[in-house]
Amino acid sequence: MTTTLRCSIALTILAILSLSTTTANAQEVTRMPDTSRHSVGLDTGLENAFIARATYAHRLELGSLDGRLFARATLPFVTPDLGDWAVDGGLRVTPLSWRDLRLTLLAGPVLRRSQNELFSGTGMGLSATILAGYESPVWGLSAEGGYEQMLATHLSHSDRYRETFYADAKDGWYAVTGSIARAGLRGGARFGALEIAARAGMNTTGQFQPVTPPFYFTLGTSYAF
Q1: Cα separation, 19 vs 76, whole angstroms
Q2: Domain extents in the chain
Q3: CATH number for the domain whose boundaries are 3-215
Q4: pLDDT 10s per residue in the chain (225 long)?
Q5: Distance from CA of residue 70 to its chain's centroid?
């Protein structure tokens, strides 16, 4: 593989990760009301790029595990572009709890796409998050840590790229990886069915190298029914 092609793939991975949603993370900071089975949410903020995100979660009958299936869709916020998007989903469970103290795990697949004048790329990967903290029906505060690993990327070069940089660039799937690690805090309050929450923390690559920007923050709301 030539140096030029390696650079092309690396740039595509960086572009895909620039739309990186925070690692598997259903919008729920306080405890969902016992009578609710569904939750919808909206949040916005900075996560490598300014983004807007919609979330749906469905409660599963898993006893003390308090399970959820969740799905999310993310688009850039400042300059909306349907060529750049991310979707992810997965399972959320709480294997350990004592009164309002909880340890929660989230994991699932992620699919991201980024497109520009030179190339487009679609990346597939896995993400996981661990939450530890206080989660009551009224308010919550937890530490969060997450990791996302891209496993494969489909790369398509434009004619402009071939004319300008590398005429023999090949389109197709590449087993190249990129990763993001995050650590931070989340907190919020619930007013009946409505929750308002905020999150903030630091970003690095999966090898704990600095990224730009080195921090993230979001503000959102969700409604349980």
Answers
A1: 7
A2: 3-215
A3: 2.40.128
A4: 555 555 555 555 555 555 555 555 666 899 999 999 999 999 999 987 889 999 999 999 999 999 999 999 998 876 655 668 899 999 999 999 999 999 999 999 999 888 877 778 888 999 999 999 999 999 999 999 999 998 998 888 888 878 788 777 788 888 866 889 999 999 999 999 999 999 999 999 888 888 888 999 999 999 999
A5: 12
